[in-house]
Amino acid sequence: MQKHCRIFLTTCLLTPLLACQSPPKPENIVAAQLQQSALTSNLAYELVESLTVEVGPRLAGSNKDLVAVHWAENKLNQLGFDKVYKEAVQVPVWSRGSAKAELISPYPQPIVITALGGSIATPTQGITAPIVRFDSLATLELAPADSIKGKIVFIDDVTKRYITGKGYSETVGGRSKGAVAASKKGAVAIVIRSIGTDHDRMAHTGMMRYQDGITKIPAAAMSNPDADQINLMLKRDPNVVLTLTMSPQSQGDSTSYNVIAEVTGSSKPEEIVLIGAHLDSWDEGTGAIDDGAGVAIVTAAAKLIQQLPNKPARTIRVVLYAAEEVGIIGAKAYAKAHKHELAKHYIAAESDFGAGSIYQIDYRVNEANLGALHQLSAVMTNNGLILGSNTASGGPDVSILPAQGVPVASLKQDGRDYFDYHHTPNDTLDKIDPAALQQNVAAYVQFAYLMAQSDVELRPIATTQ
Ligand code: ZN
Ligand code: ZN
Question: Does residue 373 lie in a domain region?
Fold first, then answer.
């Protein structure tokens, strides 16, 4: 007790008088304690290690996806949450098969590619055709069809490195919409420069889409060094010919699950603070940064609240979404299944951007009350966060909730290296810094606790940005 008084006195002498007139608010004392607990807990790292080692890759709809669901249920039960349950989601099944590409002329040699998620196969003998290069999806869309007909489209858009990861949003359209744009003009296949910031000879996968009424063509990504190599060839000879051989397959639908855990609120149990992540991953790495880290961060944060002697007012709900990678399918199923209680969702946030330190929290709440919310969140600045804007999206699975009126927050992570590893065989546990992971847990536990205790009215929100 004496020691506590001395610390309080010293703090008072060092800070302006006004700050000392009232003792710290009870929720700030708990939030500070939660931060300390998070920064000394190894639980999140143990969880992501367990998921990546004992389950590994877990493509939506695959057998491993169900192993991951089982893993999640077991872990959440072992951790002693008040409620653990799962909700069925129908997901498309797609298997990667093999993907090979070989330059035939002018300088024959193999290149490294990977199939984009959802792509069809080539004929067994492959597709051989000249390459036609575009520096972006936009230039492909503007190009005359006669320059494309019968060729393999190569979109050569370089993904730039930013702390926010915005380079990805600038180029990902080429991956998702490139096949349709190319096929409309008669292309026989599309191979894009990987949507990634690394220079490793590894290609980045990710979802692509077809459109009804437009011929489906095979779609792949090549590694960044291979895209550079093709550019150097095109400088020497505009007639670069590629053979592409791929055997992915769509295999109908299967059942996966959103796995959910709750810490029941003490006085407003029907009101929900949702913290989410996605349980599925691509099949090439072990899904450590995308999104094993997120699963571990939100689970460990909720566990720290479960351990509190006095639970916060609202319920903390951890949602481990199914099938994010293949089209936020678990998120859509959640929004449908919980339509009746979305009005009771106080706020939602998702961790799906690796394990880099969180430097800022953005909200999307009633603009008039952002100041009050910032006052409540001020304690989070002690964990290195800046209080940011009112334009949050909340993360991919959560991003569909604002249209239903649900306030969201984005706890923004340093994503400078995220797109080096994203959707590649290099997405493995060693890319996670244990200290940064703890800082993430500290931010999420403070966020969840403060939101579950908050008296600030967050609605109505702006439903358009
Ligand atoms: Zn993800
Ligand atoms: Zn992903």
Answer: yes
Boundary (domain end) residue, out of 247, 272, 307: 247
Query: Residue 421: nearest ligand to its CA?
Result: 2
3-state secondary structure of 347: strand
In a domain, 54, yes or no: yes
Flag whether 464 is in a domain. no
What per-residue confidence (pLDDT) applies to 23?
85
Is 70 exceeded by the pLDDT of residue 15? Answer: no
DSSP letter for 27, please.
H
Query: Dmax over Cα atoms in the chain, in whole Å?
Result: 84
Q: 349 and 335: one domain?
A: yes
CA–centroid distance, 353 to ligand 1, in Å, is 7
pLDDT at 7: 41
Average pLDDT of 439-446?
A: 99
Each residue's pLDDT tens digit, 80-118: 999 999 999 999 999 999 999 999 999 999 999 999 999
Residues forming the active site:
324
CATH number at residue 205: 3.50.30.30
Confidence of residue 21 (pLDDT cuts 50, 70, 90): low
Structural domain including 84 reads 24-94+252-453
Ligand nearest to the CA of 292: 1
**Is 0.90 topped by the overall pTM?**
yes
> CA-based Rg of the chain, rounded to a whole angstrom?
24
pLDDT of residue 2: 40
Ligand nearest to the CA of 395: 1
Verify cis geometry, omega within 30 degrees of 0, for the bond prior to 106: yes
Residue 14 lies in a domain: no
* Domain stops at, among 205, 224, 247: 247
* Number of domains into which the chain is organized: 2
Give DSSP secondary structure letters for 171-205. Answer: HHHHHHHHHHHHHHTT-SEEEEEPS-S--SS----
Question: pLDDT of 103-158, one tens digit each?
Answer: 999 999 999 999 999 999 999 999 999 999 999 999 999 999 999 999 999 999 99
Mean pLDDT of the 396-425 span: 98
* Closest by CA position to 328, among listed 275, 396, 267: 396
Residues 133 and 207 in one domain: yes
- What is the whole-number distance in angstroms between the Cα of residue 206 and the centre of ligand 2? 7
Distance 419 CA to ligand 2 centre (A): 10
Are 169 and 183 part of one and the same domain?
Answer: yes
Distance 413 CA to ligand 2 centre (A): 15
